[in-house]
Amino acid sequence: MELFDSMDAKETARNTAESAATLLHARPCPTGRMPVIVANGFGGLLFHEACGHSLEATNMADGGSEFSGRIGEQIASPKVTLVDDGRRPGAWGSLHIDDEGIPTRRNVLIENGILKGCLVDRLDGRRLGMPPTGSARRETYRFAPAARMTNTFLMPGEDDPKEMIRSVMFGLYVKNIHAGSVNPVTGEFNFHTNETFLIENGRIVCPVHDATLIGTGREILNQVEMVGTDAAMGQGFCYAGSGAIYIGAGQPTVKIGKMTVGGDQV
């Protein structure tokens, strides 16, 4: 129920209705390689899926992640600083201690494009020779705890979101991402967008039908060209081997220079 302390239910319902009405007149979504701007807030699910799961020790310990053995290397654009913080006040993914009894903390995963670390539980920490990071989570006692994300977010940058739109001659503006999946071994992911708009000659011109964004974590991290100042968080659930857990995901508005877009069938 605490969610209602941070949101206006009537305003949320009004925005949902307006979005549905707008999409009644949407055009087919273009497909191919193009710039994509993802709005702030739960658009942070992009980084949760694209690289967050690949930075969990469950995948890192056995060399089963595209980022295994790369700590200390440049893996992303210098504009990318990615943090997982289980202590963030009032956030959905926050908890005082993890499911192995270790206090949660703020873990910097990527700093200015450099891979700084990963999320570590006790078992995989022994395999990696790394201390636990307070990241072991599970849905209930029926699951074994595993390294999982808490509140994962991209730190704000210095770019103006309006300037991002003006910089795109032909591309997409994605207001919301509401589903995604990833293969941590290869880094291949796909996302289903919601409230998607066409950009032409630096202007948002019309809504288009929902699209699928496709790529790999390594590719997308290096394609981040602009990061806005308007950081925001969203709430959701993450489903993996240790069950369904509450998570926070967030980011400022972000411009991806090139991304593969697949249009949905209308």
Can you describe this structure in just a few lines?
With 266 residues, the chain is an alpha+beta fold. The protein has one domain (30-263).
Structure description:
This protein has 266 residues and is of the alpha+beta class. The chain has one domain. It has helices at residues 9-23, 45-52, 57-60, 122-128, 161-166, 217-222; strands at 32-38, 82-85, 106-111, 114-115, 136-137, 146-147, 151-154, 170-183, 188-200, 203-208, 211-216, 224-227, 232-240, 243-251, 254-263. The strands form 3 sheets. A 6-stranded mixed β-sheet has the order 4-3-2-7-14-13. The protein has a 5-stranded mixed barrel with strand order 1-8-9-11-15. A two-stranded antiparallel sheet has the order 5-6. The chain is globular, with a radius of gyration of 18 Å. The model has no long low-confidence stretch (mean pLDDT 89).
List low-pLDDT spans. Answer: none
As a percent range, the share of helical residues equals 10-25%
Question: How far is it from the N-terminal to the C-terminal residue, by CA?
Answer: 37 Å
Q: Count structural domains.
A: 1
Radius of gyration: 18 Å
SSE string, helix = H, strand = E?
HEHHEEEHEEEHEEEEHEEEE
Task: Outline the fold blueprint.
Blueprint: H1 9-23, E1 32-38, H2 45-52, H3 57-60, E2 82-85, E3 106-111, E4 114-115, H4 122-128, E5 136-137, E6 146-147, E7 151-154, H5 161-166, E8 170-183, E9 188-200, E10 203-208, E11 211-216, H6 217-222, E12 224-227, E13 232-240, E14 243-251, E15 254-263
Parallel strand pairs: 1-8, 7-14
Antiparallel strand pairs: 1-15, 2-3, 2-7, 3-4, 5-6, 8-9, 9-10, 9-11, 11-15, 12-15, 13-14
